[in-house]
Every structure is written in C-alpha cells, then in structure tokens.
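Subject: mismatched residue count in predicted assembly?

I count 1042 residues in my input, but I want to confirm that the predicted structure covers every chain. Input:
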Amino acid sequence: MLWPGSECVVTTMTEDNWQNCGFQIYRSLKRKDGTESGKPPLLRSTSFTADTIRKASVQWYKMKWQFTGSANDLWGEEVQGYAVIDANSPLAGPVDFFRSGRVNQIRVRFFNLSRGDDASDDFRCAFLKFGETENEGPLDLSFSTGRVSCFHNTATLQEFLTALDGDEDCTRDWALRMPNNYYALADGIRRYPKCRTALDYHNYATFSVKTGNGNKLVRFRLHGNNDVDSRLSKQEQEEAWIIQRPDMELPSDTYLQQKLRNIAQENLTMKLQVQIRDITDVKSVFDPTTEWEENDFPWCDLADLCLSYSVPKLSTERAKYNFCSLPEHIQMVVPEGTEDYGSLIQIQEKVLTSTTRKKHQEGLTPAGHKETTFLVHVETGNHLFSGTDAGVYIALYGTKGRTKKILLDKLFHNDFERGSKESYYITVPVIGDVKFLQVFLIGGKYTFKREWFLNYIVLMDLTTRKLFEVPVYRWISDKITIPTGEAMLYQKERNTDRKYLRRIWLDERDKLYPWARKEGLPGCIASETYNGLPDELKYSTERQIEKKKILADVLIKLKLHKYTTVFQSFDSFDDFKTMSEVVPSSETSAAIKEDDRWRTDEEFGREFLAGVNPVMIRRYKEPIQKFPVTNDMVGNLLDRGLSLDQEIKAGHIYYVDYPHMAGLPRNGEFFVSDPIVMFYVRDSGQLVPIAIQLSQEPGPKSPIWTPNDSEMDWLLAKMFVKAADSHYQSIYSHLVQTHFLMEAVTVTLHRQLPPNHPVYKLLIQHCTFTVAAGQMGRDLLLNGEDSVFKKILAIPGHEIDLMKNRFKDFTVNELIMPKAMADRGVDDAKLLPNYHFRDDAMLIWNTLSEYVSKIMALFYKSDTDVADDSEMQAFLADLREEGLRKSAGPPNGLPKKITSLPELVEIITMIIFHSSCYHAALNFTQIDYFSFGPNYPSSMRRAPPSKKGETTMQDVIDSLPNKSTQAVSIAFASYLSEPLSDEVYLGEYQDSHFTETEVREILDWFSDEMEKISQSIHKRNIDLDIPYVYLLPERVPKAAGQ
Ligand SMILES: [Fe+2]
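Triage response: the counts match. Full output below for your records.
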C-alpha cells in the first residue's frame, strides 16, 4: 500500500518501468529548503452535512466562474461511439447494466485541466457518459490522468487549480505543500501525448456493489494504449512544476482536438476497467490520495470502447453530466467527511444541476468541411393519428462523419400530417455514404403515447446522386436510430457502427420485449393485458375501432331479437337458422343449412376435410385398442365388398381423436365429450363417418354409435363430436397453434433480429398485430369471469389444461405441411380425395418455399453463411428455448443449430405459412360453421347418451345450446372472423422493407404465382357443391392479426 512518508515510496508499474519518484524528490527538495518532511499531515476532514454541502456548493460555483467564465460550461472535445461490455464482465452478476455482451452508445469528453495548449504539459481529463444523449446518462464517470487525486474537496481543488493557473513558482509551492501533492503532480502530468485515447485515466471515487458475497468496492479507469512517452521522466519529475512545450517540434496548440475531430477515419479504442476488493481498511480504501495496488487488485476489463464520431461543438456544450447517476445495484460510497472524494462529486452534481443552461438549437458546420445538400423525402403513415405536431429532427451518420440534429420544417406549412409525403433540402458537411440516421421528436403532444408513425425516409445526396432508403414502418415516441435500408447479414457488415447499432438495437429489444414464461405453453410477451403491450405491437387505431364496431353491430342485432337475454331452448332447428341469419350468410353457410345438408353423413365427412378444423383427420393405420370397432358393426357401410381390416389396409379408413380432452373437469351446466370417430372413404371418394365413440374408454356406458342406430341416436352422437371439435378448434387449433405460436415467433423476431436483417424484413409483414391478437385472445377468451370461453364452453377454468395436454405432444413437424400431411397419412390425394385444405395448402406451401428460397439465396450465398449467421442462430435458440419452450413431452423439434440453406428456408416457410394460410383456414371459417348451432354446437346441455334407441328429437333440441349461449357464439365468431378493411393479403406488398431491386422482382414473381394459384382454386371450385374458398390467396391475410 502506498503511503506518503513511508521509506519506500516508489511504485512500480506493471506495464512498464516508469516510476513515480515524487515522494523521494519531495523529501530531498524539502531538505534543501531547510525543512523536514516528517510524517504526512493529517487529512483535514470535517463532517459531511447538508450545511457543508451548501457552503461548498457556493464555493464551487464561484470557483467555476473564476476559472471558466460560467458555472456550467465545460470545455473540451466530445466524441461518441459504443461500449461493448466484456464477455467476462466481472460485474455481470450483481449489476445488470454490466451484463456480458451488452452494447451502449457512449460519449467521451476529453479536455485539459486549465491549460489551453494541447502540446504543453498538463493533467488530461475525460468524462465518460453512457448513452448518446445531451442529458445525463445512466452512468457518467469523470477521470483524470494519474493514479491518485490532486484534490479531495472544494478547498483542495481550488488550491490545485489556482496553482496551475499561476506561474511556475505557484505550482512549485503547491507541490511542496504536501507530499501527496508532489506525488500526484508527478503522476498525473502528461507531456505532449500522441493522442488522448492513448492515455490512462483514473476515477478516484469508490463505489459499492452489492453481490451475493456481500458488498464489494470498485474503482474505474479508462485504459488507453499506455502512452509512456508522455509521462514525466525521472529528470523531469525533479522539476515537475515547469511547464514546457516540446523542444524538437512545434505542434499546434489544438493538435489533440484536431485528432478527435478527425476521429471518423481512425476508430479509436479504449477499455473501461475496474478494480474490485473487499471492504477492509476503510481509511485507506476511501482515501483518494491512495491507489489500490495493482498486484493485489488487478485491473479487470469491463468494456471495450470504440470511438467513431466527433460530436458537434454545440451539442458538446449542451451536454449535461451527472456523476451521481449510477445504474441499479451500484452506488457511490456515502462520504464520511469532506476529504472523501465522494463528497466532491456530490457537491459538483449539486452545482451543475442547479445552473444548467439551455442553449438554442442552432447549426454548426465544422470549419474546413465541404458541404453537400440532401433531398430528404419523408412519408408519414396513413393510420389514424399517424401524424405529429412535434418538431422532427434528423441526424445523419455516414462513412466520413455525422451531422448535427437538423430540424425538418417548412415555413407556414403543417408538416407530417397523416399520409403526407414531404420533401426537404438540408445542407450538411460531407459525411460520405449514409449508414444510419437518427430521428428525434421534440415537443410532441403525447408523453406516454405513440407519437408519429413514420413509413420511410429517402435521402438523395445531390452531389453524388446516391440514394439512401430508410424503411421504418413503426411508431416513434421520442427517438429512433435506424440503419439505411439494405438488408445485410451481421457477418457481412463492413461498417463498424452498423454492427454496433445492430447490437444496441437488440439489447434494447431484449428489455422492451421480455418473455413471460407460461409453464407448459408457448412463451409470450410479459404483459398482463392488452393495454400493457408495447405500442409497436398494439393494433392500429382503425383496427381497434373496426373490431369494436363489428362486435357492437352483431350484438345490437342479437339484442333486437332479445337473443342475448333469453335463456330458453330453441324450439326447432329452423329457430337456429333464423338466429344465424343475424349475420350475413356466406355461400358456404347457406349451403350447409339448405335442405338440411348439415344432417347428412356426407356433409359431416366433408367438414373434416374442408371445414373449420381441417387439421385433425388421420389415416387409420393400426387397430386402436380404445376404439374397438368391428366389421360386424360397420361392414354393411363399406361399399367395395371388402372387410373393415381390408379397407384399413387399403387406406380407406380414417379417424379423428380427442384424447387431450379426457379427464378435464366439466362445469356441470354444459357437457362435452372426448370422442373418437371412424371415417370411410367410399368408392365414390366421399368421406363419411361410420362409427363414433363418445369417450376414450370403451364399455357399456360408452357404446359405439353407427349409422345403423336410430336417426336421432346417430345425429346426437355426431353433434357431440362437433361440440368436442368446437372446443378443440377454439382452444388449441386456432388460439394456440396459430395465435400463441405466431406471438412467440413475433416476440423472438423483435428480440433477436435487427431491422436490416433479411429474415426480419421478410417476416415482419407476417407478424403484424400477431402479439396484439394473442394478448386479446387471452384477455377476451380466456381470462376473467366474463371470458367468452366460460360462457360457451364446458370446461371453464380448464381451457389452459387442454392447451397444456395438447402442447405437450407438439413438435414443429406439425407446422411443416409436407411432413404434417405425411405424418397424419393424409398426403395421398388418390386415397383421400376432396381434401381441399390439403390441396390448396400444399400448392401455396410449395410456392412459398420457392419464394423464400429465392430471397434467401440473395443474402446467404452458401450453407456456411447460414451457419455463421449468429443473429439467426440466436433467433432459433430463443424460439427453441423460450418461444416454443416445452416442459414435458418430446422436444419441440427445432434444431440446436441450422447449418444449411434448405433448413433455414423450411423454418421461414413454416412461419409464413402458419401466420397466413393456416390461420386463415381456421379463423375465417368460424362464422360459417359456428353461427348455426345444430351443425357446430359450442357445447351440449345434456350428458352424452349411453343407451341406444332412447333419443328423441326433443332430446336432441334440448341438448343443444340455449339462445343466449348461441348468441354469444355468433357474436364472437363474427367478431373473430369478419375480414377487416386494413388487411394486407398474400401476394400484396404495401410496406417496402426491402430496398433491393432483386427482392422486389421476386415479390412481383410471387404476386403473379399467387394470382395463378387463385385462378386454379377458382377453377376447381366451379365443380364443387360447396366451394373451398378459405385459402384463395386474395382471402388470406399475411398475418394472424385477428
Ligand atoms: Fe384468429
């Protein structure tokens, strides 16, 4: 431990052999002066009270005016760049702010203490601010050259500054006043450094960090490249107070400033380092004149700093620092007396915050820079409330520099109104090719609300004629930093700043979109309600209004007929028809009801191939023990003259099964079964049901029903199947398998891919409103006493159990259509004809796959590019470990790493298909099927029958939902599946996230292909009694947003 007055006062540096001989020289000089150094004087400490702070603040204030002409102005040159927290950050555990890999924008201000001449000897200082802002950041630190402080409080600071500001004798007197002073002078002075970023800068404050092993103390330093040459030599230390410029050269007195102003070409780097120790000797630990021995407390790397841009002078002058600003779990040690360095910082902070001056926004063009003019074209979104009255400023960052904030404004013109396209001319210094820009909103109307929906900005450099497109398509509240439009893989980015920006972007998203873990269910965003969602993920105002209107309209119609308040049974099937007509009848819903088609076995079979839940049917390959159907029971229904076993082997027997509903408690008021149904493909190709068992356990209480039973027995059994399918479709196939899965994908996309990643650009349009829809689904359908599912389904409070039962068995192969169809054994159109969902889905899947391949091939030139894409691999890992996390059953099937382009294409195709086609097939069918209760009852009001030959028509009617329950089903089927006016359909492209011409050509190709598929589906539908229209591309929204 260094301690003034000790015999050996020379500290050996670890990096070099430079020695501070301050104490030796001090003693020898004092002896020459006829005085003896003796022991070091006692620290002059007084207790640290509010009164001390007040008095010291006044003293500081006066001192600042004395030395700088202003209480707040700080001089120096400011540069900005990025700090990347070290992968082995020693503070990563206790302090989230320093977690490994985190990237922060930073500013560093470099200045000399009191001298104006950069080539003269002086103390060099640096302020580090986390955050690219003129306001205080989350962590501001001040540093000076030298390992110990020349001053500890206002009084000693003034002594020191007065000494530096006087002649050489003044400095000498100050140095020899105390041994610490001489030591600090020799230690801190730097003569003619090569560069400011080559120096080491120390922060003398002691901070406390709470860890699992008790409090630790830390000190920080900025570590440069150890510019040893600029330290005082042994000979120079003997006359350390002599101020001198170098003999051999005559550098400019601003050469260091010039170096920083030209920083864009150099990308200067430094390290933020930290020393960590336990609390032991309090006095020496907190004494700013005492360094912590490097041998005992080595410096650990905390962050790499990359400094790339010079900050315009005015912005530097406006910048505020607050050295009491600290991240969570780290605090400055409370000063015990005025000698503690912490006391100085608290006083400084008090003065600075009370004397902050606001300067007007005005331009500054650095001298010597050539200028160019940009044409700036800005398009505001066309949603309601997209426009803004805030002042819109932009700052451009290019390969050669950056501009200041520039106000976009036209005199006497209301800029940035909804749907507006505005152009501006701005003249700025030459900054090279624009790589990213910042948009700032100042003086907006809304403090807590989204302020402006910006579609895009296009910049044209009128000197070089180069065009820079910046697609945004998002809400901006106060500020956004966004790269220019070209899509790029991370590993192919050549611009360092864009690389850092990507990491900053993702780091922010990690905080904005945190996961909420739902045990046994897909991950979702951590928000309890729709209102808690980030603005960016909420519905557009128009969509909210339109959805509310749809619901209000249908409720009004239902109330007019008093359906919503009448709890009595329907009198007949015709009564149900009348009620279903409160919503517009489609061709499908009309055909189902016409001539009681819904009662036929042919229609029952058709609906499992082209109805509201066409993803259940499977080929019957092996005998199902729990479903003991025999040839005796159904042999007469088989029309090829073959036995049941022979028909099974021939691939003509299919089934649907609802095992995941078994064992779920029912509510007593409503009933639902967990049935199994056997289907037969007749020689004509028609699929018909031939056996139904209404539970998973065969036996006398659960007979197997067939068309050979009475008409009412068979009809009621079929209704119980449909009620079970209603539950399964609503709760799992639709809500979980489209909405919750796509919500998980969307959250992952936002968290893991930056906006200039090609996969982000491709997928973002298929993620529009998907998080809003998922959360709205939880709010309306699941949560609360008034939830829709509680009103119409038979397992209130246990819907989530059904989800978990089913999701346990989930694997991604279910989402990959070719694999899913093969796995269910329904991929052979000859064996199972008329499966229009399959046929149309495969048609679109194959085209989608080709489309994705074409686009991805533009960016991934080889499988190695896929394997090396760390962002895409992180996306997959997050989706695998959080989004589609499973707590039971087989793994979700997402690979640990993808190493080939075909694998990547398959996953992306799967996501697009699911958000668009799969959702459309399950969503927009709801109103056609659920609006007519006898065909698709939401639940039953009587228990499943157990005896044959007893069911009457009245029993059937009384088993169906009553009027108020059916009214809720109709209202919500309408609310959920009415197409919305702002939908964008497959093959349409409104938002140009891609700026590459090649991609736009592929988009055009895809639109043409969708048109061809549409034509072929229309052509096929001509021959169908009930056309299958749900996968017509022009009816498939691109995203599962409702
Ligand atoms: Fe939906």
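The longest strand covers residues 268-278. Marking this ticket as 'not a bug'.
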